[in-house]
Amino acid sequence: MSQDGNELSRRRFLTAAGTAAATAGLAGCSGGGGEDTTTDSGETTGEGETDQTQTETEDDGSTSVLRYGRGSHSPTLDFQNSTSGEVAKVTEQIYDTLINFEPGQSTLTQGLATEYSLEGQSASITLREGVMFHNGEEFTAEDFVATYRRFVDSDYEYYAGDDYVSAYGPFTLGSWIDEIQVDGDYSMTIQLTQSYAPFLRNLAMFAASVHSLAAIEEYGTELSSNPVGTGPFQLSNLDDANELIRLEANSEYWGDGPNVDEVVFVTIGQNSTRAQSLASGELDIIDGLGAQSSVQVENASNANLVRTEGINIGYMAFNMASREEFRDRRVRQAVSHAINTEAIVNEIYSGFATQASQPLPPNVLGHNDDIDPYPYDPEEAQRLLEEAGYGDGFSFELATFQNPRGYNPSPIQTAETVASNLGDVGIEVDINQQSFGPFLEYTAQGRHDACFLGWYTDNADPDNFMYVLLHPQVEESELTEGQDWVSFDAEGYNTSNRSAWANREYMDLVEQGQSTYDEAERESLYNEANQIAHDEAPWVYLDYADELRGVSNRVSGFQIAAISGPYLNLVSLN
């Protein structure tokens, strides 16, 4: 499963003209949306920003402008350069994938591919003809090959670089593709390294979108601010200073819509201010809602609160590589018992979420219905700490983001609650709050002791949680006998595993789950793996959150989705 050079040098890309040797490399989506949070610049958002937002996004009445409000800005517009859901919200409008999800469902449907199949270790893909990129180039199989190689092949002339590409590379495509046979402009056969059940679903993930070969050659890593896709919208203006992104309709779009002339993504860090902007008509759709702001939307006369079951997990990861205390399962279990996750869900998140018990959400294959959340039990926590030799307590740093995420809409209040709960059993918590971009970098480098994070599904497959978030993805040689953790510095380490957990029994079950196409067998394997993950407690399992959006009454056609999206090409304004 690892990305070492010896194995990857065998990967090949076959074209009608011949074969080019290649290697694949690099290593895991954090995204989503408290009430008293700040913007990613670190400045508190107030009424002055709202007024500026209105000025920046107003139009003269001759064009229809959809205004989408969120809690954080996108630091890049290249889907290969980030794991953030805030990036995906925008790039999903600009780029297309070979395969799509039906809006609001987990069913696969046509995208840039009109036919697709997976049998054994071979995937056959027939591409849509006549699709044009925003730069006027026609989409062909060569664009997909170039996109793939830019993401994972360090020998490729246009490889984006280890410091640029995100951890999505290996687990989306790089670890699984052995070779690509291009048969003309519109047909490909992809040979896999093994039988891999989630592969077609991976092709529908935002990180598997398709760049233009010509744009790759022209812009290189500057695609982060010069995106060129085939999607329903194209970039009109990127205003990082004011955290605004303006897109304009692609009149040549091959699919449904778009039904508005422009989309503007507006950043307002404070939930209540964002909800107020929706109620006053300054915004049309908002996300990242917490308890107070949801009530604001429900009470607005010109907007509605739209809600659906999410496919996500919010958690607190223990960094076993950083702290010796966390290498003891009893300590991790003690902390899990000491934190009142039921109160966090019911009081801070106001019932817009349910307690989590395991890595997989309830609506994903392999969720173990027999596992209950850790009960709030300070006495049991104290007993476990004493048994582990930490009866007098210890201290650690809890890193948290400031801005709201759907799986943790009030991160600062949640962190304060955790600190208070753990203080009751003698554990001192130092809260380190950061804006989201620096926070992701900080924790990806393993500099945290513990951290809040969460995950929205990319493809509704259990592998997207179990492998992506808790498998180290390193060679056996990087693992130490009798040790269930690994260093962040290990060759090929999967930095999405913020806990540095490396439990061999769990890893084996997850790998088996990847390689079988029998659904019943997969379910059984993941049931067992979830039990191990619960018992070993590499995370404090916080919540499974509902998806919440505030939608103006003047909006029609909006489809709330737990996977992919938002589908703004389907939206029209009354």
From TrEMBL:
<dbReference type="GO" id="GO:1904680">
    <property type="term" value="F:peptide transmembrane transporter activity"/>
</dbReference>
<dbReference type="InterPro" id="IPR006311">
    <property type="entry name" value="TAT_signal"/>
</dbReference>
<feature type="region of interest" description="Disordered">
    <location>
        <begin position="24"/>
        <end position="83"/>
    </location>
</feature>
<comment type="similarity">
    <text>Belongs to the bacterial solute-binding protein 5 family.</text>
</comment>
<dbReference type="GO" id="GO:0015833">
    <property type="term" value="P:peptide transport"/>
</dbReference>
<dbReference type="InterPro" id="IPR039424">
    <property type="entry name" value="SBP_5"/>
</dbReference>
<keyword id="KW-0732">Signal</keyword>
<dbReference type="GO" id="GO:0043190">
    <property type="term" value="C:ATP-binding cassette (ABC) transporter complex"/>
</dbReference>
<feature type="compositionally biased region" description="Acidic residues">
    <location>
        <begin position="46"/>
        <end position="61"/>
    </location>
</feature>
<protein>
    <submittedName>
        <fullName>ABC transporter substrate-binding protein</fullName>
    </submittedName>
</protein>
<keyword id="KW-0813">Transport</keyword>
<feature type="compositionally biased region" description="Polar residues">
    <location>
        <begin position="73"/>
        <end position="83"/>
    </location>
</feature>
<feature type="domain" description="Solute-binding protein family 5">
    <location>
        <begin position="109"/>
        <end position="473"/>
    </location>
</feature>
<dbReference type="GO" id="GO:0042597">
    <property type="term" value="C:periplasmic space"/>
</dbReference>
<dbReference type="InterPro" id="IPR030678">
    <property type="entry name" value="Peptide/Ni-bd"/>
</dbReference>
<dbReference type="Pfam" id="PF00496">
    <property type="entry name" value="SBP_bac_5"/>
</dbReference>
<dbReference type="InterPro" id="IPR000914">
    <property type="entry name" value="SBP_5_dom"/>
</dbReference>
